[in-house]
Amino acid sequence: xxxxxxxxxxxxxxxxxxxxxxxxxxxxxxxxxxxxxxxxxxxxxxxxxxxxxxxxxxxxxxxxxxxxxxxxxxxxxxxxxxxxxxxxxxxxxxxxxxxxxxxxxxxxxxxxxxxxxxxxxxxxxxxxxxxxxxxxxxxxxxxxxxxxxxxxxxxxxxxxxxxxxxxxxxxxxxxxxxxxxxxxxxxxxxxxxxxxxxxxxxxxxxxxxxxxxxxxxxxxxxxxxxxxxxxxxxxxxxxxxxxxxxxxxxxxxxxxxxxxxxxxxxxxxxxxxxxxxxxxxxxxxxxxxxxxxxxxxxxxxxxxxxxxxxxxxxxxxxxxxxxxxxxxxxxxxxxxxxxxxxxxxxxxxxxxxxxxxxxxxxxxxxxxxxxxxxxxxxxxxxxxxxxxxxxxxx
Length: 394
What we know:
Blueprint: H1 4-9, H2 15-30, E1 36-37, H3 49-61, H4 64-68, H5 77-91, E2 100-103, H6 105-117, E3 123-127, H7 134-139, E4 144-148, H8 159-165, E5 170-176, H9 188-205, E6 210-214, E7 237-242, E8 255-259, H10 266-280, H11 287-294, H12 304-319, E9 332-333, H13 342-350, E10 354-355, E11 357-358, E12 368-371, H14 376-393
Parallel strand pairs: 1-10, 3-4, 3-5, 5-6, 6-7
Antiparallel strand pairs: 2-8, 7-8, 9-12, 11-12
Helix pairs in contact: 3-11, 5-11, 6-10, 12-14
């Protein structure tokens, strides 16, 4: 018998992927350059030369076994050490090799983090708007995902709703900052308040409430924006990171779990990750990619283009009468649609080959996401299609 839960998922496909596939198909008809495809968060800037150079040099200097064999189950030790030292250097932490576990991207990191601290029936809280894949990440572990409604005035945390929802079954809180889809960065004040609540509630309920911090956009923060390193404010923080966005290497599937050294049993939790891998198949990410990222930890691709694209879109959206909170990072902007039904709004946009993603699945009906990780020239050309769409429909 086939597994029913996966059959059921066939009717709940990712709206992002469906719209992206539509945009590609439309591009075959009229030329993809004429489709203003803002669907997929696929980094558009080139990979740093140093990263490619590392891979070429590694193929000449290291053995085939070093590069293409299985790595250690927790990741290559030298790579884990380099990651720890980079975090300490950049954020004033005191990680060691034994606090780092290498994963196949942030998805793999979250899969491990949730299973570290929950059993079937436990609750994990996240905040809308949120990345829709959090549902399968959490629910397929056996835990239950609870969604705090958004504060649409700022897209910082809605603390009143959060405090009414947290209870003795809450084992973890999952945050994403900088945030997909809103582009908002949680401020230092927000993180401090969250840490204070989690500290108090952990004492009240008699167990640690872990903070799982999903940070694939950590490096994409715009000029002057307050962007605290979350783990420095709360001991029981499990940081989940991906190099996909910072280095423009999403297809290389590489990231890590970093557990705050101040967290009780931190080193044992890392060893546990190796055992979790045995059950979920995320074990031993590519060895050559681990080596390559270890040589490029403190650099990024040229992510300045994202801030430029954001400013172009933000100014135009405001001029056209959209309500939109200015992003502080990422490559997403999150306006309110010009009608209550964002699905209908985005469907009308398709008529003008302007493709955005309605935010119902992000937990924020009435809004839509634009992923502006495309060429600036194409962003500029898209403005005329957006203007025509708004003028003729609204």
